[in-house]
Amino acid sequence: MRAARPLLDYDAEAGAYDATRGGVPRAEAAAAAVLGLLPDPARTLLDLGCGTGIVTARLTRPGLTVLGADTSYGMASTAARRGVRTVLASGSRLPLRPACLDAVSAVWLLHLLRGPGAVAELVAEAGRVLRPGGVLVTTVDKDAAHDVGSDIDALLAPHLTTGPADASHEVEAYAARAGLRPDRETRFTGHGQGRTPRSTAADLLAGRYASRISPRGTTAALLAARLAELPGQDAPRAEPTYRVRSFVRG
Question: How many whole angstroms separate alpha carbon 121 and alpha carbon 160?
Answer without folding.
Answer: 24
